[in-house]
């Protein structure tokens, strides 16, 4: 169960990171996945928690992409 919980957290962190891309909201797949997260109370709570954590903690492992 602990590994499943960590996999869920990892997936939610990936989704949160993808949603920071300006064009991500226009993707039908991303919109569908976001809707699935919002309709599942457990995933909604987890996703909101991860968004709060990422907003309050500056990323230390950012990569230079230029």
Summary, kept brief:
With 66 residues, the protein is mainly alpha-helical.
Q: What's the layout of helices and strands?
A:
Elements (H helix, E strand, L loop, with lengths): L1 H17 L9 H12 L1 H16 L10
Helix pairs in contact: 1-3
Major beta-sheet overview:
none
Shape: globular
Which class of secondary structure composition applies to the elements?
Answer: mainly alpha
Q: Separation of termini?
A: 40 Å
Mean pLDDT: 82
- Report the count of strand segments: 0
Compute the gyration radius: what is it? 13 Å
How much helix is in the residues?
55-70%
Q: DSSP strand (E) fraction?
A: under 5%
* Helix/strand order: HHH
* Low-confidence parts: 60-66
Tally of separate helices: 3
List descriptors.
disordered C terminus; 66 residues; mainly alpha
Explain this structure.
This protein starts with a helix and ends in a 10-residue tail after the last helix. It is mostly helical and 66 residues long. It has 3 helices and no strands. The longest helix has 17 residues, at 2-18. It has helices at 2-18, 28-39, 41-56. Helix 1 (2-18) packs across helix 3 (41-56). Helix content is 68%, strand content 0%. Mean pLDDT is 82; it is low at 60-66.
């Amino acid at each position: 169960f602990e590994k499943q919980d960590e996999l869920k957290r990892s997936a939610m962190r990936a989704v949160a990171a993808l949603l920071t891309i300006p064009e991500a909201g226009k993707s039908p797949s991303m919109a569908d996945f976001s809707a699935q997260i919002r309709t599942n109370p457990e995933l909604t709570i987890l996703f909101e928690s991860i968004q709060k954590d990422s907003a309050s903690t500056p990323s230390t492992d950012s990569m230079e992409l230029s």
